[in-house]
């Protein structure tokens, strides 16, 4: 999203510098997600998320066509496994139609589900045929090339350590250099609350890192899935649940789940930061969150540790699935989940302004899909 904004700024003629902590772009959330271009099935009609998703997916499709990057419309099937999920499925259909999801189909016949996904099982579904998959890392690199071509700079390995904003100027110190800018826009993802503290912004929302772990179908069993098979999401949580996705390069991955990470960049249980974990535990929202969602937490953590529990979550949608079909991978992502003082998990955009510094505090899914539209929205604010 930060590189998309840099591209939009450079295209309107601004002199742009991008400071990136890592030695490469898309090293965290962008390069570790499912690669899905969302069509807008879940978002409240008229909300900023719904509007930006609709505009952003078209911009992304056109960009991929222009740059000759892969963009595959494999389609998404959201499946109600039993009648208890029909009410929530009805709401997804209502929101999808209000959001203008193209060619949406409501399915109430299991035989029609079998036509689209022969190995899937359910009592009803909605089908979004134009939901696509892409390679977001390649897209980010292509955007960066546009920034450079317009005269902008992208400085890798420049972790920001200090920001001083005063009298309309912003001094930024990194691990290797110092800079002075007229304006600064912070798109720091997993570290957005840390960077916000550099300029004295409100500590809330804080970032609670959630790890999403993926399994993969063994190559000889990828025929079980044609496109994407998703569950009906639980409206209480900003997560979609374990699902099947055929990727842009034809692999099929299963997941992600959602477990609290023990570090901001905790891509496995072995990665532990005492500082990050202690900061989460002492946050005022920690106890309210634990009281409200402890059952879900136990369920997700146990499925992370025990393959049979993860397998049972997946097998609900594909009864033919065997435990041996799931292959553990090193793939995992960490979601920067914004978290309020009362324990609430924020599911909308949050942007702060401190002098000449604009802070993107929360940019939830579908931020990758909507990245170009979000950039245009931020241009208007700037």
TrEMBL record:
SUPFAM superfamilies: FAD/NAD(P)-binding domain
Listed cofactors: FAD
Keyword set, alphabetical order: FAD, Flavoprotein, Oxidoreductase
InterPro entries referenced in this protein's UniProt entry, alphabetically: FAD-dep_OxRdtase (IPR006076), FAD/NAD-bd_sf (IPR036188)
Limits of the FAD dependent oxidoreductase domain: 1-378
Top-rank lineage group of the source organism: Bacteria
Family: Belongs to the L2HGDH family.
Stated name of the protein: Hydroxyglutarate oxidase
Organism from which the protein derives: Microbacterium murale
